[in-house]
Amino acid sequence: MIQDENDNPSSNTYFLKTCGEKDAPYHYKEVEAYTILMGQEDVSRNMALFHGSWIQNQKYHMLLEYVHGGTLMDFFRLTEAPSTEEDKFKFWEKLLELMKPVLRIHQIPSLDKEHEYHQG
Question: Which domain holds residue 98?
Fold first, then answer.
């Protein structure tokens, strides 16, 4: 397994997200949010890595780390529920860590509007 600069597991599989010109404002907001969140260590370790963005032939692209394992719903469907008190505690502790990026993204002020926040 590949490790990043902090010895965290890192994937060598990537996801290319592309949109057209009509969705450019959403692209810029998402790039802005990823850029800000990737600089926050307590959040960035719980989200797909953002590797950059570019515009080519009127298409807006973002390169993201592909996270294997399916959706959160897949995880719940395929994983046995924790049974010991220790496992239950670990489950909730880790689940709450996953919520940090979701909560934090709504606390990021938009750089172009002083009193507006990102909405997803």
Answer: 2-105
